[in-house]
UniProtKB/TrEMBL annotation:
Belongs to the peptidase M16 family. It comes from Flavobacterium beibuense F44-8. Pfam families: Peptidase_M16, Peptidase_M16_C. Keywords: Hydrolase, Metalloprotease, Protease, Signal, Zinc. Residues 190-368 form the Peptidase M16 C-terminal domain. Residues 36-177 form the Peptidase M16 N-terminal domain. GO terms for biological process: proteolysis. This is Peptidase M16.
């Protein structure tokens, strides 16, 4: 009884925290199409200024892959009013830090400053958009930076090509089929004019969202945004091509040899719907149920009890147009990849034929409520979530309501979604193995 009361008390505390995390925001558009979202939080003298552009690797020319990621680096080179090499110096000299990242769907830039440097942050992001300097020396410099990043994070990283190989085999017509970092040969072959044209097409105010969050005065912030961003001309509206993949009707078999590994890994991957769908959220819960920690179903049975695998996991790789559901395992000595796939299939069949217990369902809901709280626990997290929900989901208020979607998912939905997407004839089986001597040479 005491344990039950303690558990109930913990749950009530968690619910209270989640409720208290409601994020207030204000949004509006400038005449040039730039969408602006403001969030005031005076709990600490910190502000985040960020811009998310609706351009990722899926927007690239198939013969010029890697452009979106390349621009993540290139647009720190400098502007007409920020000399080359001075961007990071200005940020650090004013007590700030900054970074950027790229996905298949968007590119995100942000600065974190003491709140008394808000005007500086807004001006710097307006400079990146209005006055970027894209010249040959910057392109050549960042070309070497990107090559080194690829060597470090992909080429010389154990299992570093796993996601790229899954995408390559799951997608036949959609640009998700190539890696976000792209092809170094494509970048080498690109002309300066091609980089400038990419910037002109995608780095425009009507293809972006500006988020300012933290210890700010709303009226003053609006004045600075108007002062620095309103003069930027609206760009030509972007026409995006829609790519539709044919359903996978029989198992795809593929092999990839990695010179950086000694232990083979087997991967079972399924193409799934857009992250904006309810089904994608159900698949998130399924991945947590199967492999979310040492108490998860697959880990407990296949790794801990049966000792058939050194490692076993599953996760949803969520994207704007499609997603992937990926199960992976490294067999223990004496066991095979085929055995691990068969064991994973047993767990999936169990999901497809039996309702999970009410206790498991409640545990999942508690985990997702905790994730919701954590995702909005920092001002940086709030800023990125506001940008993402606007740009990729089309609903900023999901920052307050998405948790309620997860809380409304039922045990029956978990069974039905597993039946719908996780079948042997709808997947890729990828044998990710050590390279042979011949392959290494």
């Amino acid at each position: 009884m005491k344990k039950s009361l303690m558990a109930l008390g913990s749950l009530l505390m968690l619910s209270g925290v989640a409720s208290a995390q409601k994020v207030a925001f204000e949004e509006y558009d400038l005449d040039n199409g730039l969408h602006v979202i403001l969030h005031q939080d005076k709990s600490a003298p910190v502000i985040v200024t960020s811009v998310m552009y609706h351009v990722g690797s899926k927007d690239e020319n198939p013969e010029r892959t890697g452009f979106a990621h390349f621009f993540e680096h290139l647009l720190f080179e400098g502007t007409e009013n920020i000399a080359r090499g001075e961007w990071f110096k200005i940020v650090t000299a004013n007590g700030g830090n900054n970074n950027a990242n790229t996905s298949d769907d968007r590119t995100y830039y942000y600065e974190v400053f003491p709140s008394n440097n808000l005007e500086l942050a807004i001006w710097m992001e307006s400079e990146r958009l209005m006055h970027p300097v894209i010249n040959q020396i910057g392109v050549d410099t960042q070309n070497e930076v990107v090559k080194e990043e690829k060597r470090l994070r992909v080429d010389n990283q154990p299992y570093g090509n796993l996601i790229a190989q899954v995408k390559k085999n799951l997608f036949k017509v959609h640009p998700y089929q190539w890696a976000t970092i792209g092809s170094m040969d494509h970048l080498d072959a690109a002309t300066l004019e091609e980089f400038q044209a990419f910037n002109k097409k995608f780095y425009i105010p009507n293809n972006a969202v500006l988020v300012v969050a933290g210890d700010l005065d709303i009226n003053q912030t609006k004045k600075w945004i108007d002062q620095y961003f309103s003069a930027i001309p609206k760009g030509t509206p972007i026409s995006r091509k829609h790519f539709e993949e044919a359903p996978i009707k029989e198992t795809i078999h593929a092999t990839y040899e990695d010179p950086n590994i000694q232990l083979p890994m087997v991967v079972a991957a399924y193409r799934t719907p857009s992250m904006k769908t309810r089904d994608a959220r159900v698949l998130d819960m399924i991945s947590t149920l199967l492999s979310g920690g040492k108490s998860s179903r697959m880990y407990k049975r296949i790794v801990d009890k049966e000792k058939m695998a050194l490692q076993m996991g599953a996760f949803s790789y969520n994207q704007e147009d499609y997603g992937s559901y990926i199960i992976y395992g490294i067999p223990m000595q004496g066991h095979t990849a085929e055995e691990l796939v068969a064991e994973a299939d047993k767990e999936i069949v169990k999901l497809q034929t039996e309702l999970i217990s009410e206790n498991e369902m409640q545990k999942l809901k508690n985990q997702y409520e905790s994730q919701y709280v954590n995702s909005n626990s920092s001002i940086e997290g709030v800023a990125e979530n506001l940008a993402t929900y606007y740009l990729l989901y089309g609903d900023v208020n999901l920052i307050n309501t998405e948790n309620s979607i997860y809380q409304s998912i039922t045990r029956e939905e978990i069974r039905e979604v597993a039946k719908k997407y996780l079948n042997p004839n709808q997947r890729l089986i990828l044998d990710y193995v050590p390279a042979t001597d011949k392959a290494q040479n």
